[in-house]
Amino acid sequence: MHRFLKIILLMLVLAALAGGTAAWSLFGSSRSAMTFRTTQIKRGDLLATISATGTVEPEEVIDVGAQVAGQILSFGTDASGKPIDYGTHVKKDMILAKIDDSLYAADVASAKAQLEQAKASVQRTTADLEQMQAKLVQAQRDWERAQKLGPSDALAQSAYDGYKAAYETAKANVAVDEANILQAKAAVLQADSTLKRAQRNLDYCTIRSPVDGVIIDRRVNIGQTVISSLNAPSLFLIAKDLSRMQVWVSVNEADVGNIRPGQPATFTVDAFPGQTFKGQVHKVRLNAAMTQNVVTYTVEVTTDNSSGKLLPYLTANVSFEVAHDRDVLLVPNSALRWWPQNDQIAPEFRGKARAISQRSGADDQLQGRGTIWVVNGNFVQPLAVNTKLSDGMMTEIQGDAIPPGTGVVIGEQQKGAAPAGNDATNPFTPQLMRGRRGA
C-alpha cells in the first residue's frame, strides 16, 4: 500500500512537470511571435488648447418694449417702404410700430380742458383780488376818517365800530383772494403735469427705434394686444452692430484658470464647415453656473464679423490657445503610457526599470517626469525624459542627448501583422498585448 502511494505521487509530479514545460513553451512561442511597434521622436510645433462650446451672440442687444397697453395697429416702414420685419435695418427714431391711441388721445383732450379751466380760475381769482383790494382802500379811508372824528356827537359809536369792522373785513377778503390765486396757480401746474403725462402716454403709442441696428426678432403681430404691467412687454430685439460679435463660452472650472483677457481663440460653426474664425478673450464673467454638479464660467470671446457670415445664436466649437511651443521634441502619448514586461527589458536595465516602476505615476506627472522605451537588440531599455505640454495626442519632451529620429516603442504586434498606421499617434486605439506599468 505504501509503495502504491509512492507510485501515484511520482506520476503526479511528472504530470505537473510536463504541463509546466508545455505552458512555458506555449508562452515563449507566443512572446517570440510578438514584435515591438515603434515610432520616431520628431521635432515640430505643439499647440496646447482648451476646447469648449459656446453660442454666437450680438455684442450689444436692445430689447424694445411697450410702456402702454393697447392693440398693435400697424408696423413702420424702412427706407425702401417695406414694413418692419426680421432683418430690417433701422435708424434711430424710426417708427417700428403703432399702438391704438384712442384712449390716450381722449386723456390728452381731457387734460387740456382741465388746464384751460385752471388758467381761467387764476384769472377769476385775480379779478376778485383786485376788487377786494379796491374795497380795502375804500374801507381804509373810511376808517381813517372815523379815527379822526372818534366817537362823538358827530359820529355815533355804532358807526365808528362799523367802519373799523369794514376795514378788517376788507383786509381778510384780500388775504383770502391772494390764497385763492396761489391755489389756482397750483391747479394750473397740476393740470399741466397731467397733460404732459397724458401726452407722453400718447407718444408711447408710437414705438420708435432707440438706436441704429438690425431687427433680429419681432415678437408681436398686427392685431395683437400688448399689456403693460410691472414688466414692459418685449416687442422687438435690435442688434446694435452685427459687424462685431461675441461668443459666450461655457468653460469648466478646471480650465478657467488658464483663461485670461486678450488670449487668442479660434472657433468653428456648423454653418460653415472647414472655416476657422479667430477671436480674442474679452472677459471672464464671475457669476458661475452649476449643472449636474459641474461648475462652469462664461467666457466672452469677441470676433470680427465684417463679412456678415456669423449669425446670432450659432453654436461655436471654441479652442483657447494656452501655450504654443515651436521646434520642440515630440512623442506620441502612447509612448509614455506603454510599459514592457520584465523579460522584455534588457538585463542590465531591469533593476533601473524596477526602481522606476516603484515610483508613483501621479508624482511623475506632477513633477513633469516620464519614461519612454527604446529598442536594444531583442530587448528594450528605459529613457527618462521631462514632459511639458501635451495636446492630447503628442507630448513635448526634454532630456539629455535625445536626438530627433530616435525610435521609441508605442506597443506590440504579431510578427507579420500589418503596421497600425496612424494608430501610433491615437491614444484611443486599442493596442495588442501592451504591457502595463508595474506588471
Map the helices and strands.
Elements: H1 2-32, E1 34-40, E2 42-58, E3 61-65, E4 70-75, E5 89-90, E6 95-99, H2 102-149, H3 157-204, E7 206-208, E8 213-218, E9 225-226, E10 234-239, E11 244-252, E12 264-269, E13 277-284, E14 289-291, E15 294-304, E16 315-332, H4 333-337, H5 350-357, H6 361-366, E17 369-376, E18 379-390, E19 394-398, E20 407-414
Antiparallel strand pairs: 1-20, 2-11, 2-16, 3-10, 4-6, 4-9, 5-8, 6-7, 8-10, 11-15, 12-13, 12-16, 13-15, 14-15, 16-19, 17-18, 18-19
Overview of this structure, please?
The chain is α+β, with helices and mostly antiparallel strands and 439 residues long. It has six helices and 20 strands. A six-stranded antiparallel β-barrel has the order 2-11-15-13-12-16. It folds into four domains: 33-49 and 328-425, conserved putative lor/sdh protein from methanococcus maripaludis s2 fold; 53-57 and 242-326, Beta Barrel (Elongation Factor Tu (Ef-tu), domain 3), CATH 2.40.30; 65-98 and 209-239, OB fold (Dihydrolipoamide Acetyltransferase, E2P) (Beta Barrel); 103-204.
Write down the overall geometry: elongated
- Continuous helix count: 6
Q: Number of DSSP strands?
A: 20
Do you know the CATH architecture of the largest domain?
Beta Barrel
Largest sheet: 6 strands, antiparallel, barrel
Instruction: Report the mean per-residue pLDDT as an integer.
Output: 84
Query: Helix and strand succession?
Result: HEEEEEEHHEEEEEEEEEEHHHEEEE
Instruction: Name the helicity range.
Output: 25-40%
Intertermini distance: 47 Å
> Using only CA atoms, what is the Rg?
48 Å
CATH topology of the largest domain: conserved putative lor/sdh protein from methanococcus maripaludis s2 fold
Number of domains: 4
How large is the share of residues in beta strands?
Answer: 25-35%
Taking strands numbered 1, 2, ... along the chain, how are they ordered across the largest sheet?
Answer: 2-11-15-13-12-16
Structural class by sheet pairing and helices: alpha+beta
